Structure formats: structure tokens, C-alpha cells
Amino acid sequence: MKDKQSRRWVYGVNPVLEALKAGRRVSLLYVSAGRKRRVEEVLAEARARDVPVKVVHDPAFFDTRFPKGHQGVAARVQEPTGRPALEDLLAVPSRRGEPPLFVVLDLIEDPRNLGSILRTAEAAGVHGVVTQKRRAASLGPEALKASAGAAEHIALAVVPNIKHALREMKEAGILAVGAEAEGEVTLWEADLAGPLALVVGSEGRGLRKTVREMCDLRVGIPLRGRVGSLNAGVAAGVLLYEVLRQRART
Q: Considering only CA atoms, which of 54, 58, 95 is closest in space to residue 74?
């Protein structure tokens, strides 16, 4: 699937640093004059790549453009000309000699949740993340910030319909496991060591009925407190690391 080439902001120390390290085309780096912590690392990377730097003395430059947490560092970057197709993702596990592990997002709308999931997925060695083009969060500045740079290193396929993508993954021998509060089994009872696609539902609504029915298994996370559910990003993290735990034992 192809995206139009466009310029966008990346802000925050880690997202900007990882964008530079990943070779993303950066047209201009902005750094607050009052910024000290870790700024030298960012500036050194920018110098190594001949990226022009503008030192900003007016704090309002950052405060009026970005949410809290910008850390006084931002960059104008060139978007990639395209994103990987689903078949590109499906080819990754065999190249690495690993059992497939994917995350499929069913209409995650909060860009911070998208970024958080990308961060955890990259840390857990996930081979790729699949999301839907419409009615879902895009990989904009907020998601990039929440991913803390992980978005530069994990493949994200944006598909027209995740149900079609799930069908293709299942035909490739990948088990579709839905994350659901009222799962058929707990994550400790489920066998998660084989080829797997973890399907995470949207905030508040969870998995859509049609997506839930496509899952081969629905897995729940036991909750001991008074809160009735977990944030989508937290739930994805808990489940992914249970997958890693089980795989380490095989």
C-alpha cells in the first residue's frame, strides 16, 4: 500500500533521535536554547547526517505547536513513499527463522495507544503490526512520540480491511488470538508458543463482533482489583510478554 509523500513533525528526544538513526530524511532540526539533557546526542547524530539545526530561543515555538512532553526537540521529516504490504510482513518470520508473531489492531483510535503498542511490539520482537486505514489512528506526531522511536524500527502495514488481512494470515497457518476481557481462557491457560497474531480491540468497545468471530481463540487477562479492564496498550504488552515467556520454554 502506498502513501503520498509528505512532510510532518516528529517531536521529543527519542522519536527524533531514532528518526535520525533510521535514516529518515530530516529537512530541519529544531532545538530549544534551554534544552540540555541528551541534546548533544541528537545534535551529534544530526551533524553526522548533515541535517541543518535551528536553535530556538522562544519557548512558545514548541509550546504552541506540540503537546506537553515535546522536550524542546522537534524535526521536520519526509514521510516514506510507502508502507509495507501484508505479504511483506508475512515474509519476515521465515527470514529470521522464527515462528510468526504479529499484532493486529481492530480500530485503535487513540494515537497514544497506537504508539504505545508499537513501542511494546518492537521491544518484544514482533514481526509486524497491522492496522486499518479508515476509522483508526494514523501514525502521526502523537503516535510517533508515544512510540519513543520504536515506530522507526517496526513494520506497520495499513490495510483496507483487517478482516481480510486476518483471513490471509489464518490461511498462512497463523493462529488468530483475540484479547478480550471475557476470554474463553486466561493467558496462562492458552498455548501461545506457535505462529500467532494477537488481535487487540478498540478503546472502550473491544473487538467488533465480526472480528471476534474470526479469532481462533479469545484470551483474557485476570484482574484482581476493582478496575474492570486494561488500557489497550497495557493489555497488548502483558499478552506479548506471556508469548515470549512460553516461547522461551519450548
A: 54
Mean pLDDT of 216-243: 88
Burial of residue 32 (number of CB atoms within 10 Å: 0-12, 13-18, 19+): buried
Helical packing angle, 13-21 and 39-48, nearest 10°: 20
How many CB atoms are closer than 10 A to CB 88? 13
Rounded Cα–Cα distance for residues 153 and 128 (Å): 10
Cell of 57: 530561543
Distance of CA 84 to the CA centre of its chain: 14
Pairwise CA distance, residues 1 & 3, whole Å: 7
Nearest to 104 by CA among 45, 167, 194: 167
pLDDT band for 80, please (50, 70, 90 cuts). low
Share of the chain above pLDDT 90, in %: 50
Alpha carbons 183 and 44: distance in angstroms, whole number: 49
Q: Compute the distance between CA of residue 172 and CA of residue 130 in angstroms, rounded to an integer.
A: 15
Q: Helix, strand or coil for residue 205?
A: coil
Residues 6 or more apart in contact with residue 90 via CB below 8 angstroms: 100, 168, 169, 172
Q: Please, which pLDDT band fits residue 194 given cuts at 50, 70 and 90?
A: very high
Q: Is residue 223 within 8 Å of residue 129, measured between CB atoms?
A: no
Alpha helices per DSSP H over 22-139 = 39-48, 60-63, 86-90, 92-96, 111-123
Cell of 179: 484479547
